[in-house]
Amino acid sequence: MMPNDLPPWNVVYQQMRRWMDAGCFEMVVEDLRMLLREFAGRAAQPTAMVLDSRTLQSTPESGAWAGYDGAKRRKGSKVHAGVDTLGRLLALHVTAANEQDREQVGELARQVQEVTGEHVELAFVDQGCTGENAAVAAAEHGTQLEVVKHSEAKRGFVLLPRRWVVERSFAWAARFRRLAHDYERLAKTLAAFHFLAFACIMLANLFRLLAGN
Hints:
6-stranded mixed beta sheet
């Protein structure tokens, strides 16, 4: 379904795969994140992050490796992400929706420390990441977990300290039609499109900052 003024779909697909395999979108996000943090008066590399996940409904293309998320009552893929305290993407890991958040803490911590140069010391998580195994997995990568619990008597919508940041990041990503559902046959492709989406978001933020100056 490529527009007529673009090259044949297989040529475009091959070039996109080259960019994905080379990690181009991840590098763009990393550079933009450091620039935006410096504009905000922060150090280029964060010392804290926020972890969470979102479940995307599967489609016929992704249904072969989809799982069922009992909490969300949805069959699909689960995107586990780590963002800094400004909501900028640090790391991302895609699994089937039946995978537990606590089991992905170690992988996210590893990725985050790799891109930040071992700078992150603290990770804010929800109650889905409680347990000794998650804490040990994070500690192996020099990160301490802090569980942000829901209010015992909560009425209506309540902003949880630190936790709302990653929810806002997922809301940003959900505005991209390609990320409304999981349309991809490969988890790697779904992850790459998330990095591409955040590159677009962060680039727009940078342009607004530069225009204001």
